[in-house]
Amino acid sequence: MDVTSTGQKTVIEDSMQLVGFSIGTELFGVEILKVREIIRDAAITSIPNSPAFVEGVINLRGNIIPVIDLRKRLNLLQKKAEEDEEKVWILILEIEGRITGFRVDSVTKVLKILTKTIEPPPEIVTAGLESQYIDGVCEIDERLLILLNFGRILHTDEIKHLKAMAE
Questions:
Q1: Is residue 4 assigned to a domain?
Q2: Which residues of 24-50 are buried (b: 16+ CB within 10 A; e: fewer)?
Q3: 40-54 pLDDT, tens per residue?
Q4: Does residue 147 fall inside a structural domain?
Q5: Whole domain around residue 37: which residue ranges?
Q6: Domain CATH code at residue 41
Q7: Which of 113, 129, 97, 158 is CA-nearest to residue 20?
Q8: What is the mean pLDDT of residues 139-146?
Q9: How many domains in the chain?
């Protein structure tokens, strides 16, 4: 909470911290408390016959963790071939008790926003994304930030499939 003094009144404002990341030119955020860690340049091993949005698995300190290509999962435009050579960024999150990695283009910074600035997504924002994945939008440095709900990004049967991959 932020405390601001306005004359004789003290106003307590709720705020939250987000990890900002990008996919292409789009800016996204996830609550910092949901992020276990951020990995850069991990070797991803492909898994045959896995869903198209599953990048593969990584070995993180002896634990096999499935990695989701967030660009593919959200049906965003694919990168140009020369952009594929960039470094790999993976956000490690816990979803429904399972540790899962999400590949993103870059991790920007930790952002602090006031919860009152989060608005429901306008229809135009959800045109390219399924609205169930979005908790809200807010403006950061004159850019629109999309707050993703990672709990809804994977369906129950997909979570079971990922669990089987990691075993």
A1: no
A2: eebbbbbbeebbeeebeebebeebeee
A3: 988 899 988 888 889
A4: yes
A5: 15-165
A6: 2.40.50.180
A7: 113
A8: 88
A9: 1
Over residues 102-123, the mean pLDDT reads 88
Instruction: Tell me how crowded residue 99 is: count the other CB atoms within 10 A of its CB.
Output: 17
Please give the Cα distance from 94 to 159 (Å, whole number).
12
Instruction: Return d(Cα 139, Cα 81) in angstroms, integer.
Output: 31
Query: Using CA atoms, how far apart are residues 61 and 66, in angstroms rounded to an integer?
Result: 14
Assigned token pair, 39: 């990995």
- Rounded to an integer, the average pLDDT of 58-82 is 83
Q: Tokens 């499939």: give the residue.
A: 161
Q: DSSP E strands: which ranges in the chain?
A: 2-6, 9-13, 15-23, 26-31, 35-40, 54-60, 63-69, 89-95, 98-104, 106-114, 134-140, 143-148
Q: Output the six-digit token pair for 15.
A: 């705020």
What is the predicted pLDDT for the residue at 74? 84
